[in-house]
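Hey all, quick one. A colleague (J.T.) asked me to put the 2-acetamido-2-deoxy-beta-D-glucopyranose job into the tracker so the inputs and the structure tokens live in one place instead of scattered across chat threads. No bug as far as I know, just bookkeeping. Sequence used:
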Amino acid sequence: MARLLKSPLLSVLLFLLSSTDADINVADFGAKGDGKTDASEAFLAAWAAACSSSKPATIYVPPKKYFLRPVVFRGPCNNSGITFRMDAILVAPDYKEMPSSENWLMFDDVDGVSVLGGYLDGRGSSLWKCKSVSKNCPGAATSLGFYSSKNIAVQKLTSINSKLGHIVVHTCQNVVLQKVLIHAADQSPHTDGIHVQNSINISVFNTGIKTGDDCISIGPGTTNLQVQGVACGPGHGISIGSLAKDLEEEGVQNVVVQRVVFTGTQNGLRIKSWGRPSNGFVRGVVYKHVVMKNVKNPIVIDQNYCPRNENCPYQDSGVQISGISYRDIKGTSATKVAVKFDCSPTAPCKDIGLQDINLTYQSKPAQSSCQNARGVAHGVIVPPSCLIQ
Ligand SMILES: *[C@@H]1O[C@H](CO)[C@@H](O)[C@H](O)[C@H]1NC(C)=O
Ligand SMILES: *[C@@H]1O[C@H](CO)[C@@H](O)[C@H](O)[C@H]1NC(C)=O
Ligand SMILES: *[C@@H]1O[C@H](CO)[C@@H](O)[C@H](O)[C@H]1NC(C)=O
């Protein structure tokens, strides 16, 4: 403490800290904050203290750089109000030193956790380099995962250079992610920004995502997802899918995506399923007030996804897609075909609604293409609709 007080900036910060309600400080548990010394045991000890408390607790992480190995913050806890208040940078091990683990930072079976602030440096770039020349690179892990948890809030968090996905929400309910910033190189492999799966009541608000894979990917079993105020790009867009990976699969329903700007992305609004039998479905999706800036596939439903033609050639997707509405979608396409509905012959898409669409390619109307797609169009529709009634 005395040594820290030598720095005027730190003393101000310490003063601010002492005037807040932070009742647990990772420094008190021996977290070093020199960016090198492993602080994971200290973080886990702070977590254990907060989790065992019968009252809500705040874990404060001061403005330093903490090196963390993979950690799991596990519940259930004795209170449902644990806040991580982070002014810190958390750094992951290099992939060569990364213990095998699906997540770097993981919350499991918790109720009522907020993560406020924080800057996660996944240090993924050496792994991406390895992956570009080898199939056997160890150490890939999601940066931040929430599993089997409820009543979660993440605010003002930044995630850069994840080794795999940035943030995963899996088997959760009532999760709000807002003012999150996500950044990884546009060619970085499998760095999905936010992946949601098997979860209910999930919101993503006012978030900026630049990454190498999907900005947001929406997996099977997602119900009541709200995405509002997102800037995406570079990246692969906002994708529902890939679905039909399994024969028995949960559906995706009640998804609203609004006020999103896509800039230079591979896709905009995409739904994709493998060309394989499945009892999964997509039902009740509203896309509205979306701006496309030079997007390769602004609106796309692809039910014939079959990379490398493995395990699916000549099969039809069983995933039933229905009740998908596109309203007020404007801007520029980087390819001729801006609207593509390539649906399954055995389970054609139905109840697709188009309203006030204006997508241009090289300052001229773009084109649309439909296979097995039924629905109706209202208002200005550029390119003209090819849906059958
Ligand atoms: C909850 O409190 C009880 C009683 O104080 C204690 O025995 C238990 O270990 C606590 N649980 C957790 C998860 O810390
Ligand atoms: C999801 O949200 C709705 C509406 O706010 C609420 O009624 C429902 O209980 C929530 N479901 C779960 C599983 O939390
Ligand atoms: C579509 O957008 C272009 C570019 O902004 C504009 O010039 C054109 O008039 C719009 N078309 C319609 C039918 O609104």
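Adding what we noticed when we looked at it: The longest helix spans residues 40-52. The pocket of 2-acetamido-2-deoxy-beta-D-glucopyranose (ligand 3) is lined by residues 358, 360, 380, 382 (CB under 6 Å).
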